[in-house]
Design brief:
By secondary structure, the protein is of the alpha/beta class. Helices cover 46% and strands 22% of the residues.
C-alpha cells in the first residue's frame, strides 16, 4: 500500500476534509477540481475504501475517511519535519501550528508571538482559535503541533505543561451591580448569562458555581468573542464569567463591576501535545519560548 501513496494525495485529502468540498479544496490548493477528484480516487484505490459521501452540497467523510485523517496529518507532518530538519543547519524555518482560546491569545500570546517572529523571521506561526474539546481533538488527530487549553485533559496520550493560572471573575454592568446590592445575588436569576457557549469550559464552570450559590439562570446568550461579551455586559444585556486579566482595563475605568460570587475561581492554562508527536525544530523553539515567558520562576 505504501508504494501507492504520495504526500500530495494526503494534502488534497486534508483540504477536502477541512473545506468539506472538492471545489473549495481545489481553490485552496490552486488545482482544478478534476485534479482533486483524481487524488482522492488514488487514495481510495490504495485504501480499498470509499473516503467521502458525495452530498448535494459538498462532501462528508465516511468511517474510513474519519480513520484516515489522523494518518494523513501524520504523513504530511513527517514530510514537513524532514524538510525542516534539513534546513536547521542554516536557520530555523517552517510552520508551527497551534490552537487556543481567543481570550488567551489576546491577553497572553500576542506579545510573545511578536518577539518570536522578530527573532526567527523564517518561521511561520499558524494560530487558530477554539475551545477545550476541539483543541484537544486537533491534537489527538495530529492536525496541529500543540494547543493551549484551560484545564489538564488528564489523558495518558496527552502531555500537559502548566503555563499560567488565570483568575476567573463574574462581571456585571454598574446598573445591575446596584440592583444586586439591593436585592441580593438572587437578582441574577432574572438575568441573562453571557458566555462563549456550552463548548467552553468557562460556561460549564459558571453554571456549576451559580447552582452551588442557589442562582438558577433561565437564559444564556452565546457570543463568539471576548470583546463582544464585554460590550454586552457594559450595555446591561447580562453578566458573564471571564478571565480577570482580559477585563482589567475596563474594571479600572469603571465600565463594569465584579459580582461577589464565592468561591474564587481559577483556571490552569497549559500547553498540550500528543505523547507520540515529534515536534519540528521550529515548534520546539516556540514551545520553549512559551514555557519560558509564561511559567513563573520557581
Amino acid at each position: 500500500m505504501i508504494e501507492l501513496l504520495e504526500g500530495r494525495f494526503f494534502k488534497t485529502f486534508i483540504a477536502v476534509m477541512e473545506e468539506k468540498s472538492f471545489s473549495r479544496a481545489a481553490d485552496k490548493l490552486g488545482y482544478v477540481q478534476s485534479t482533486v477528484t483524481t487524488h482522492i480516487q488514488f487514495l481510495e484505490q490504495a485504501c480499498k475504501q470509499k473516503l467521502f459521501h458525495r452530498l448535494s452540497r459538498g462532501v462528508k467523510p465516511t468511517d474510513a475517511g474519519e480513520k484516515l485523517v489522523k494518518f494523513a496529518y501524520q504523513f504530511v507532518h513527517l514530510g514537513a519535519s524532514i524538510e525542516e530538519a534539513m534546513n536547521e543547519i542554516e536557520q530555523p524555518r517552517g510552520t508551527v501550528y497551534l490552537r487556543m482560546q481567543e481570550s488567551f491569545f489576546l491577553t497572553r500570546i500576542s506579545s510573545i508571538m511578536k518577539h518570536f517572529v522578530a527573532e526567527y523571521p523564517e518561521v511561520k506561526l499558524r494560530v487558530e482559535s477554539g475551545f477545550h474539546q476541539d483543541i484537544l481533538n486537533q491534537v489527538l488527530e495530529h492536525a496541529i503541533d500543540f494547543g493551549i487549553v484551560p484545564r489538564d485533559p488528564q489523558r495518558n496520550d496527552i502531555l500537559f505543561y502548566p503555563l499560567v493560572e488565570e483568575k476567573l471573575i463574574f462581571i456585571a454592568s454598574n446598573a445591575l451591580m446596584k440592583e444586586v446590592e439591593t436585592e441580593g445575588l438572587n437578582r441574577l436569576s432574572r438575568e441573562v448569562m453571557i458566555s462563549f457557549g456550552t463548548i467552553c469550559l468557562y460556561h460549564t464552570h459558571a453554571s456549576k458555581v451559580l447552582q452551588e450559590a442557589g442562582i438558577y439562570v433561565k437564559d444564556a446568550l452565546e457570543l463568539p468573542s471576548l470583546e463582544m461579551i464585554k460590550e454586552s455586559v457594559t450595555c446591561g444585556i447580562g453578566f458573564a464569567l471571564v478571565p480577570e486579566i482580559g477585563v482589567k482595563k475596563e474594571l479600572d475605568e469603571g465600565h463594569f463591576k465584579v459580582l461577589p460570587i464565592s468561591p474564587d475561581s481559577y483556571s490552569m492554562h497549559g500547553l498540550i501535545l500528543h505523547k507520540n508527536r515529534e515536534l519540528s525544530y521550529p515548534a520546539k523553539l516556540f514551545k520553549s519560548e512559551l514555557i519560558k515567558r509564561l511559567t513563573p520562576p520557581m
